[in-house]
Structure formats: structure tokens, C-alpha cells
Design goal:
With 272 residues, the protein is mostly helical. The chain has one domain. The chain is built from 11 helices and no strands. The chain has helices at residues 2-9, 12-31, 39-63, 72-80, 86-97, 100-116, 122-149, 153-169, 192-205, 228-234, 242-270. α2 runs antiparallel to α3 (39-63), α9 runs antiparallel to α10 (228-234) and α9 runs antiparallel to α11 (242-270). The two termini are 25 Å apart.
């Protein structure tokens, strides 16, 4: 309860997140406004969907890095005074942040989805919103975990930067997942970029009809992705993985939160 009241009394994070996402939702919608489904449009849609992930990731990760460092001395004192166990603090803190890192992503998607001209279907829209929420939850869980096990804010930020770079590179846009060397391809399965991007792409282009091979200039593209299935195939994604990816992200969130909890307990015990 105290964590929730703290967020209500100091709503700066909530206001900043909501303002940012309203701005980015409108900006994305205007930037990709009613993107036509030609070859140039396909590239734009791919970029817009990946940007959903990037925006939900970076702002969430670095916005939650102060999860533990600011409260750690108080937590140590009150825990060793027998006021409450670490689990109650950790759970309350996570739950107090959860609405913040749910609403803002939903607002951004709701503002931009139909402006961009993504598939005009309630099912596709709701799947996109759900996937983006899971992406943001995955990011928040990793941010909280890193914050919990790091001795300071500076260390947490130093870890987060390279980690996000690796995860984004193996997400499926910058590197075709089939071309990742075997000895390092396992990293993609720890990346919500990978799960999220495959889900967003297959949701957008699965069972999609014919796509013109024309470019915006009127010329015919030398390389043409003439259907949604072709787009998915070229990215080495699979429509059958859509729901699996969503469950995988949910499982990922729970596992990472558990790691963060264990790290918090160890730090509190050592700080006695």
C-alpha cells in the first residue's frame, strides 16, 4: 500500500510516461499516416512495428532503474527491524508499478494503430495491444531484476545498455534470425524483441492478401514481397508461434521477477 501511495503522491513518473506515450503515439500515427500496402509500405510497417518494441523497451527500462537503489537503505532497516519480509516489499513495489507500465503502452498503441493504417480488425488490434503490454512487462521485469541485483544506479544502467543492444540486434529486424551463427543464436530466446516482433509481424501479415509490387515512385520493385506469407517467410518467422510467443513472454516475466526477488533477498541479508 505504501508503494502505491508513494506513486500517487509523487506522480512524476506516471505523468512523464503518459505524456511521452501520448506524444509518441500521435507522432508515429502522423509519421506513418495511412501507409499504403505497397513495397515501400511493407518496409514502413516493419519499421513501425519494431519501433513499438523499441519505444516500450528503452523508456521503460531506464525509467524503472531507480526501483531499488532509492529505497534500499529503508528496506534493509525495516526488514532487520522485523517490520515486514522482503517478499511483501518486493511484491508491493512490483504491483505498484504494473499499472504505470501497462497503461502507457496501451495508450500509445491505441493512438497510433489506426492512424498508421494497420489491419482494421478488432482481433488484430487487440492482439497488438496484448503483445505490446507483454513486451513492456518483459522490459519492466528485466529492469527491476537488474536494479535489484545491482549495487548502484550507475551499475544498473551500465548493464542495461549493452544488454538491450544485444537483444535488439537478435530481434529479427536488424539480423535475419536464420543467419545468426549457431553458437550465439540461443540469445534470441532471451529477447522479448524476438518474441514480440515475430508476434506483431505474424499478427499483421498472417493470411494477408496480395500486395502490389509497385514502389511509391510507380516503378516495379526488383525484389517483391507479394503476400503476407512471403514477408513472414523472408523473416524466418512462423504464424504458428504467435500464441506461443505470448505465453513465453508471460513465463519470462514471472521467471525474471523471481530472479530479481532472490537477488533482493541476498543483498538485504548481506547488508546486515
Amino acid at each position: 500500500m505504501r508503494s502505491i501511495l508513494d506513486n500517487m503522491r509523487n506522480p512524476s513518473l506516471l505523468k512523464a510516461k503518459l505524456t511521452q506515450k501520448v506524444f509518441m503515439g500521435i507522432f508515429l500515427g502522423l509519421l506513418y499516416f495511412q501507409t499504403p500496402m505497397d513495397q515501400d509500405g511493407v518496409i514502413s510497417i516493419k519499421g513501425a512495428l519494431f519501433y513499438y518494441i523499441s519505444e516500450l523497451t528503452y523508456s521503460t527500462m531506464f525509467g524503472i532503474q531507480t526501483f531499488l537503489p532509492s529505497d534500499f537503505p529503508l528496506l534493509v532497516r525495516e526488514y532487520h527491524d522485523g517490520i515486514y519480509p522482503v517478499f511483501c516489499y518486493y511484491l508491493a513495489k512490483v504491483l505498484s508499478y504494473l499499472p504505470i507500465f501497462t497503461m502507457d503502452g496501451m495508450i500509445m498503441v491505441c493512438l497510433s494503430y489506426f492512424l498508421i493504417g494497420l489491419r482494421f480488425s478488432a482481433a488484430n488490434f487487440l492482439q497488438t495491444v496484448l503483445t505490446c503490454v507483454l513486451i513492456e512487462w518483459s522490459t519492466a521485469s528485466v529492469g527491476i531484476m537488474i536494479s535489484s541485483v545491482s549495487p548502484s544506479y550507475g551499475v544498473a544502467v551500465s548493464i542495461s545498455g549493452p544488454l538491450l543492444t544485444v537483444f535488439s540486434i537478435t530481434g529479427g529486424l536488424y539480423t535475419n534470425i536464420k543467419m545468426i551463427p549457431d553458437w550465439i543464436s540461443w540469445i534470441q530466446y532471451f529477447s522479448w524483441f524476438r518474441f514480440g516482433y515475430e508476434t506483431l509481424i505474424t499478427n499483421q501479415f498472417g493470411n494477408f492478401g496480395n500486395i502490389t509490387c509497385n514502389l511509391r515512385s510507380g516503378e516495379v520493385a526488383q525484389v517483391c514481397e507479394e503476400s503476407g506469407e512471403k514477408i513472414i517467410y523472408n523473416l524466418n518467422f512462423d504464424v504458428a508461434n504467435k500464441h506461443f510467443n505470448q505465453f513465453a513472454m508471460l513465463f519470462y516475466v514471472m521467471c525474471v521477477y523471481m530472479i530479481g526477488y532472490v537477488g533482493t533477498v541476498i543483498r538485504v541479508q548481506l547488508a546486515r
